[in-house]
Specification:
2 copies of one chain form a homodimer. By secondary structure, the first copy, chain A, is α/β, with parallel strands linked by helices. Chain A contains 8 helices and 28 strands. In chain A, a hairpin with a 2-residue loop joins strand 27 and strand 28. Chain A is elongated and about 100 Å long.
Chain lengths: ~425, ~425
């Protein structure tokens, strides 16, 4: 049985874990595949946007001085001397009382300084010429999208570590980034330890449970944007666990185990980590569930982190989102690797008093512009139902009286794409 | 030039569009790949959870009646008669003053009705036997995870159309779902129309802009969970647009075009849709940007929707998230295909008055449990910068005085994984 059990705070553990450099491999992906990656380069505008003064409407380009006094009593008549689509350039110099039929996006012809929408004109033909009648005045610059009004050339648009969202892709394409530097998806190895575990295809037997943790963690890995590699189930013998963890250390970028980290007689994981040359950073944290989460670091092979999660489904889940996810996100270059933290109004009493920080699975909703939260399902570390329905983790620091309806609580958003750069005082070391 | 321009409300258009049956193909995926899909079957528990009374701790299983009066003055001594790991069964009938060393997750031995944590006992050896000293009383059932307390056999856990989240995967594995029925990812075809468009690898020229919309829409398609197929750029001729749209109708599940839907002389898309046998459902909607979004339906090939988005980047973006996304999500079986709608406090004045509903790109944040929102960047339909930074669309119905700081506004969350079943009065027809 492994003996080191000095309790550490969640903040200290995260800080220690995130302080190690991680393997971040720069790759280039075509823009069609860039969605969901994180930028490995700053994105800078290569031109003004718009890159020329252009028309935001289908209509007519005019000289505002011709139309300055137009109204329904004194309509102005202009002759249409050219017609340009968005891709065309008008090569004429527009003179007094002339106008150009112009499509959305087209360059403003020389001499013109305002656009009137087609709906605001009356168009007519006379002697083979085309004319428009304008019944309202126009100011210089009216209805023109000016060069650089959206973005200036050389402006920094997105910085390293930003998520490539739908909108970011629009920016990248606008500035000619057909290939984008991002960080490679790390490969995360997962093994479940425990002789009580059945494959999910097996029938339940007394004393046995199906291995759900491996698949849950695999999903979390994919959610973070990485690749999950499964190493099955290891029986509770030191030899078997050591053999598979050693193999994983050679084959993957991050090693995750479940089970075998408690104080039971068959809990070999911390010991195995040490025997494989890793330094155990923690194996008792001031949170529940997940207090026995064991994190170790090995210097070999460029430095690798080993995460030993609890075998309890809920503790394993909390460990996966609190510890494994930020590390994976850091490897992906995500500059907001921690779960987004916000505050919400508690809508159900939580009476149970704990001497350490509780992380209660909850559901959030909005009502009257406010965020509300309440616990979901059974709050025991073995409970699996509450994992499936939770959209937040409610952080409840120890206190002597419990929490009541109306209390303001900190919550971590489980389904937010946006994250946080920091966790408490822990600054992401990217 | 296409003439039909009867203005319709956003709600009416969405209702009409979502009323058509869409192609939903059921497939089976292994649990390792199920994350992010939507269920094509209800998930029911095949057993109680826990499936037997078990220990949530490492400790000792005892008979509570032996310990009922234990305290520090009158400690109770029990003899340890067996030791079981999580996978083992104790075959003894536990008698008076006996205890069993038990690991987390193991089945409670016959005769025992309480668990004491290892930390709360003193363990000692005497005459080759092992004993524990207990200094606090235990109640019947204390520290036992009872069979079925988390979930009962036969309970419906997740329903058709639910997103397969990390937590859902845990549930699926727990109940032996190694393969899961989901809906196949639809293939969405994208073509950008417009003779002013350059490939993103091309240098800018006067009067030309790079094709950013195709890539932005491609990212949105991937974000929704589907597959994007690119058909490049079509010049502004009816023949070219017709030829590519016709090809797409044969090859993809949903056709998206950008450009060519306005009232310009080269705007052929609505006409092309009709000539290809589709019924145009709308081409003028009471929203800005995106008012010219053209949606059509064709009966052939099992029924297909054609979506003609504006060529303006912001209008194209709004059209993609408001119209294309819900349709794609419906094809994926997502029972919440619309953007999540919540309310927030406006933190910047929006003075510009519009006669139709404005959809302003904004950023949201939480402060004092409240959601706040303000516009981001330049709010013109050509602006691309605001797309990249927006996390919400602010819905501003027409009014005569503008909006001021402190107003409560409806917003659509752009980055929420969770969606809404309805949009206004529009019920998702899944």
């Amino acid at each position: 049985m492994y003996k080191l059990r000095k309790q550490q705070t969640l903040g200290d553990v995260l800080e220690k874990m995130m302080s190690f450099p991680v393997l971040k491999i720069e790759i280039t992906v075509p823009i069609e595949e860039a969605y969901g990656y994180y930028l490995a380069e700053d994105i800078v505008s290569d031109s003004d946007v718009p890159s020329f003064d252009r028309s935001p409407y289908d209509g007519f380009a005019v000289r505002s001085e011709d139309c300055m006094h137009a109204d329904s009593q004194a309509p102005v008549i202009l002759m249409v001397v050219d017609k340009i689509g968005a891709e065309n350039i008008c090569n004429l110099q527009i003179k007094q009382c002339e106008a150009v039929r112009i499509m959305t996006g087209a360059k403003i012809p020389d001499g013109c300084d305002a656009i009137i929408k087609i709906e605001s004109t009356r168009v007519f033909e006379e002697n083979g010429n085309s004319y428009i009648e304008i019944r309202k005045s126009l100011k210089p610059g009216q209805n023109i999208s000016f060069q650089g009004e959206d973005l200036k050339q050389g402006e920094k648009l997105l910085c390293v570590g930003s998520r490539i969202t739908t909108g970011a892709v629009a920016l990248l394409a606008t500035f000619g980034y057909s290939e984008i530097k991002v960080y490679k998806k790390p490969v995360v190895g997962i093994v479940a330890t425990g002789s009580e575990l059945l494959e999910i295809t097996e029938k339940l037997q007394a004393g046995k449970i199906r291995n759900s943790n491996s698949y849950m963690i695999g999903a979390e890995v994919i959610k973070c944007g990485a690749i999950a590699r499964h190493y099955g189930i290891a029986q509770d013998t030191k030899e078997e666990i050591k053999s598979v963890v050693s193999k994983m250390m050679n084959e993957v970028d991050l090693v995750i185990t479940t089970g075998g980290v408690s104080v039971g007689d068959f809990d070999y994981v911390p010991e195995v980590f040490e025997e494989l040359g890793a330094e155990v950073l923690c194996n008792k944290i001031d949170i529940r569930p997940g207090s026995v989460t064991t994190i170790a670091h090995v210097n070999e092979r460029g430095g690798k982190i080993l995460i030993g999660l609890s075998g309890n489904p809920s503790a394993s889940f909390v460990g996966a989102v609190l510890f494994a996810a930020p590390l994976i996100k850091k490897m992906l270059g995500n500059r907001q690797p921690f779960l987004k933290q916000v505050r919400a109004v508690l809508r159900e009493n939580i009476n149970k008093i704990d001497p350490i920080t509780k992380l209660v699975r909850g559901v959030i909703w909005e009502e009257d512009c406010k965020l509300h939260v309440k616990p979901t399902g059974l709050d025991k570390s073995g409970a699996v139902s509450s994992i499936a329905y939770a959209t937040a983790l409610i952080i409840l620091p120890p206190q002597t009286t419990g929490y009541v309806v109306g209390d303001v609580v900190d919550i971590l958003l489980l389904e937010s794409v946006e994250g946080s750069e920091n966790f408490g005082h822990t600054v992401c070391g990217i």
